[in-house]
Amino acid sequence: MEKNPSEHVKFDVVGMGNAIVDILSKCQDSLLEKFDLRKGAMHLIDAERAQEIYAALDEKTIASGGSVCNTIAGLASLGLKTALIGKVANDALGASFTDEIRKGGTYFEGTPLEEADPTSRCFVLVTPDAQRTMNTYLGAASFLAPEDVDEALIASSQYVFFEGYLWDREEAKNAFLKAVDIAHSKGRKVAFSMSDVFCVEGHREAFLNMIKNQQIDILFGNFEEYKSLFEVDNMDDVLAAAKEHCRYAVITNGSDGALAVIEGQVIDAVPAIKPDKLEDTTGAGDQFAAGFLAGLCKNLAPSDCLKLGIICATEVIGHLGPRPQTDMVQYVKQHGISL
After folding, report:
1. Cβ proximity of 296 and 263 under 8 Å
2. Is position 216 within any domain?
3. What is the CATH number of the domain that holds 78?
4. Is residue 339 part of a domain?
5. Is 285 inside any structural domain?
6. Residues 6 or more apart in contact with residue 189 via CB below 8 angstroms
7. Looking at the chain, which terminus has fewer C-beta neighbours within 10 angstroms, N or C?
8. Cβ atoms 87, 143 nearer than 8 A
9. Given the DSSP bridges, would you call strands 258-262 and 248-252 parallel, antiparallel or unpaired?
10. What residues form DSSP beta bridges with 270?
11. Are 266 and 303 in contact (CB under 8 A)?
């Protein structure tokens, strides 16, 4: 490990994840039942199912998405220096994704794929209770591989942020593991989002092994994901397991706010902020992670990191789409935090 890694830091956070364009649509629960979809979960779909879902939607809003990508965009909106590693195709959606992430201030040098599946897209179905059910056609994102890991980029960032969805494909998983090794060899911190209960259920043993082997420095997840990870059914048991296994666990719990466990110590929950209007929970966890990581980069106290995460999540659930739609520096200042 480098003795003085801070001397070479160029970026606050570099993210690696699926570069996806979201197609958002409000719908009734009956549409989920029609396609046998588990509410609130992420489903991987093929091209045929993508066409079927698209045809069934009455209204559609297109916006750049992807879990890690949303967090990186949120960090950039808070004024932090960010970079992204991901894959898009040489098509209209790929160009739109690239243009949007760069305009937000993020360094993204992914070369569009010429001969591959189209840019990834996710159909986000938002029911009247504001819950989002995701259906992802991976497309070009599935080509993310170890050779795409930019060692110099990883080495030049204070934190490296990954999503659990990468574990759905062997090549992407190998890219993740390579990047983790590089990050730790350069004295960087690795942050990881479990992404989804369905994802945890599919990769529980692998996630636990990474935690126990200290490959993950900061673990993000909601209460349901932590319950699934540790196979327990209440918060006390989640906290006990987190104290035993995690160096740094951050737990969101919907309207009950968020708390953390740091080196065996519980950081009391910071309450949620009720939005003026609950429109869409898409991106709430992603923007919470953006706020929390921003707080870490700015050396805020853990309780203020939690508060900043909740502020960012509150903004995004007040409108359709997974990324901020206001001046976030001013927004968080209005809620009592200056960056």
Report:
1. no
2. yes
3. 3.40.1190.20
4. no
5. yes
6. 158, 159, 160, 183, 217, 218
7. N
8. yes
9. antiparallel
10. 258
11. no
Token pair for 335: 């809620």
Q: Which two tokens stand for residue 35?
A: 């396609």
pLDDT in tens, 251-298: 999 999 999 999 999 999 999 999 988 998 889 999 999 999 999 999
pLDDT digits (tens, 9 = 90+) for 209-243: 999 999 999 999 999 999 999 999 999 999 999 99
Q: Is residue 77 part of a domain?
A: yes
Residue 206 sits in which domain range? 5-334
Number of domains in the chain: 1
188-to-14, 181, 282, 286 alpha-carbon distances in Å: 11, 10, 29, 21
**Phi-psi category of 175—alpha, beta or left, where left has phi over 0 and alpha has psi -120 to 50?**
alpha
Cα 334 to Cα 339: distance, rounded to the nearest angstrom: 12
Asked if 140 and 118 count as a contact pair (C-beta separation under 8 A), the reply is: yes
Give the pTM.
0.91
Three-state SS annotation for the chain: CCCCHHHHCCEEEEEECCCEEEEEEECCHHHHHHCCCCCCCEEECCHHHHHHHHHHCCCCEEEEECHHHHHHHHHHHCCCCEEEECCCECCHHHHHHHHHHHHCCCEECCCCECCCCCCEEEEEEECCCCCEEEEEECHHHHHCCHHHCCHHHHHCEEEEEEEHHHHHCHHHHHHHHHHHHHHHHCCCEEEEECCCHHHHHHHHHHHHHHHHCCCCCEEEEEHHHHHHHHCCCCHHHHHHHHHHHCCEEEEECHHHCEEEEECCEEEEEECCCCCCCCCCCCCHHHHHHHHHHHHHHCCCCHHHHHHHHHHHHHHHCCCCCCCCCCCHHHHHHHCCCCC
pLDDT over 60 (residue 320)? yes
